[in-house]
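Figure S7 source data.
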Amino acid sequence: MRTSSVTAGAVALGIALLAVVTSLGSGSAAAAPTCRGDRITVADLASGCAVSTGTVVLPDGRRFAVPAAGVTVSALPLGAAGTSDAGDVSITNAGRAGLAVRVDDVWKGSAAAVRQERDALRSRLAATPQAATTTTATKPSSCTNKSFAKLGFTWRVPVSWSYNPAGQKVSGASTIRAGADAWTGGIAACSKKITTTAAERLVGNTTQASGVTAAGGCGASSGTSVVGWGALPKNTLAVTCVWSRSGAAVEVDQRYTTAQQWSTASTCSGPRFDLRGVATHEWGHAFGLGHTAQSSGLVMRPASTTCDTGQRTLGLGDVLGIDSLY
Ligand SMILES: [Zn+2]
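Tokens for the predicted zinc ion complex:
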């Protein structure tokens, strides 16, 4: 939930944590950061060390394989409405400058890498118009709300992806693809007609696992975009991981949870989540859109309710967002 007060609180918390880390770091008893192995912490990264392999563990337990130098990996979770939001994560490997870690709007990790990546992201975002965020909406108004957020990457080629049906709760490929295609080609929504250059291509089925992990983090980039099913943290419906290089996306992996019931019918009922609606949201991330306020009523709000078939249909901010990127 990204209201400004929560963000301000999170920033304050981040500053407070930084102060604690700094004071610990100045003491002679503090262990030297290693920045190696499968438990590299954010505090380790604050030393500015360069890292080429290993696993970063966030305070919330999510784990991320260290991306290659020059690569950013982003994890975007979608939660069930009424539950707390795990937060959007981006980790950039700035090579010799170390790793920059961003959780929602709070930056951590190597100070030099944070400076470098924050400036680069700012200039990438400035290259296309950013709509003002509407925070005063009192009720969902998906055709009047103009909000959208950009993640800082786009695809320069159509997204080629494969589907892994292992463990699928419903037969999902065509439904998930319909969610993707809500954003591609000609779009008519909320009395607006646009044509985007966003494009995707379903290559076929695969047995390769997606890079999304059961803890909701991202494993190593495989070079192949894979969408599949599996375990995810409690109340997380789906997670999209995207790898990008200087703003150009190179791989997207998605995992849909096997811990919930899903529906692909147009008339959904019972405690089921609408796969096409959730897939539409996940592909919004895949193409480069971030979360809007939950009250926006837009596809890119960060939490879904059961049988939320309305999330299949783009709202005004969603249309303006994809139009600004493609
Ligand atoms: Zn999301």
